[in-house]
TrEMBL record:
InterPro entries: PCD_sf, Pterin_deHydtase
EC number(s) from the headed UniProt entry: 4.2.1.96
Protein name (record): Putative pterin-4-alpha-carbinolamine dehydratase
Organism: Halalkalicoccus paucihalophilus
Keywords, comma-separated and alphabetical: Lyase
Length: 91
């Protein structure tokens, strides 16, 4: 099992434009149209499958919210931070 990060570690390592929301980190990505958001969600899904670390995603009309947490550990781990950075880099 991965170790949970403490509050200071989370804040210092959090990927750009991501926020902590309780035991998750989250970011909402904006798109010009719905299908761009769907394509983005598909790309994030492929990354999640490769890494076997799956986020919650909420797809809206011109936005996709992505949330990471490590369920087995009960909070935020280094894997969540790294996945957020990879999503920022283009899924």
């Amino acid at each position: 099992m991965a170790e949970l990060l403490d509050d200071e570690e989370i804040q210092s390592r959090l990927a750009e434009d991501w926020e902590r929301d309780g035991e998750e980190i989250a970011r909402t990505f904006e798109f010009d149209d719905y299908l761009d958001g769907i394509e983005f969600a598909r790309e994030v899904g492929e990354l999640a499958e490769e890494e076997f670390h799956h986020p919650e995603m909420i797809v809206g009309y011109q936005q996709v919210e992505v949330r990471f947490t490590s369920h087995e550990e009960g909070g935020i781990t280094e894997q969540d931070i790294e996945m957020a950075k990879r999503v920022n880099d283009g899924a």
